[in-house]
Specification:
Helices cover about 75% and strands about 0% of the residues. With about 70 residues, it is an all-alpha fold. The longest helix is centred in the middle third of the chain and has 28 residues.
Length: about 70
């Protein structure tokens, strides 16, 4: 099971990568750096909480977890 610190670290690194990609995509599609930046800021505000909650819920779901016991 992941610790809270690990989940937070994963949340932060995931968010930085995802926001950077989102910025580039919106910038290219809109041809406007300001629009890309505004999109990235909006994502940085709400998506970390969304991801963190999702990650912690999945920590409680036992489906798909293999437990390997050594002898």
């Amino acid at each position: 099971m992941n610790t809270i610190k690990r989940s937070l670290a994963k949340t932060i690194t995931y968010r930085l990568i995802s926001s950077g990609i989102g910025f580039l995509v919106v910038w290219v599609l809109s041809n406007d750096v300001k629009t890309g930046a505004m999109f990235s800021v909006a994502e940085l505000i709400y998506k970390p909480l969304q991801y963190y909650i999702h990650e912690r819920v999945w920590q409680r779901i036992k489906w798909g977890i293999l437990i390997v016991t050594g002898k």
